[in-house]
Amino acid sequence: MHLVFALAACTVQPAQAGPTTHPAPTWKVQAHMDHHFDMASDALFAVMDGDVEAAKAKGAELSTHKPLADVPESWMIQLVEMQSASKELAKSTDLADASHDVVALGATCRACHAASKGPVMDAKNLAKISLGEGAMARHQWGTFLLWLGYMGANEDVWKLGTDTIGHADGSLPPLPEGVKALEEKAHRLAGNAGKATTTAEKAAVLSDLLTTCATCHSQIGVKVR
Ligand code: HEC
Ligand code: HEC
User: Exposure of 224 by Cβ count < 10 A (0-12 exposed, 13-18 middle, 19+ buried)?
Assistant: First the structure.
């Protein structure tokens, strides 16, 4: 998935250094961010898998990640928030809790990205990426786009995610009775994602969606990665 981001971010522009702050050079920030992104995205995929322990481990890793030495003062507050969100993730108790904590972590990324000039993502380029075959490939890509749009504070990418997941028809193998309700729930939530406008609504729908993916996968023993 990291490769996907490299593709998505290929239009990155140099950050504007303000007259009074001296942020770290762009390449350093980007390399550091790529690392955040890998850890946070690994946590997201662990949750999709229904693997709470793996998600917790990523949270713990991110919470001890040293910040860049020469970041502007104003970033420190946001970095501290990111670290405490990672610590919460490291303490999650079940799948619903872990889904919630991953999205809460994404909210701290989002807050800083919305305030500073965050990652540059081009929804038009992302829309060209092949989805692979089948309903699950679309679910996964759609959910990943929602995550990108959410943590990156990019409304176009969020919208692309809702369109992708909203059209995730296609056949699944015959499902056991017990998980039919989860399938319906996932469809209903995918519809709700398109209607979410505020940051809080987006967070709620993304976290419910992740919990639903994770619950079904863990009940039938599917490994996503
Ligand atoms: C303290 C502020 C801050 C926080 C917190 C933060 N970011 Fe960033 N992020 C930035 C800035 C600024 C950029 C733009 C860097 C540039 O292109 O020069 C950026 C860029 C990125 C990029 C693009 C890097 C590239 O290769 O172009 C990714 C991916 C990213 N952030 C992911 C994350 C994730 C995931 C989190 C949360 C776990 C996070 N960031 C938290 C400030 C932040
Ligand atoms: C009702 C049950 C159910 C729900 C809900 C569900 N899945 Fe799945 N998922 C499955 C089954 C069954 C498989 C294995 C069969 C397959 O690959 O088609 C699977 C496999 C996958 C795979 C592996 C696909 C592959 O080709 O190997 C991914 C990725 C995936 N799901 C993503 C998601 C995401 C993301 C969500 C939530 C938006 C989700 N799924 C919701 C039942 C579900």
Answer: middle
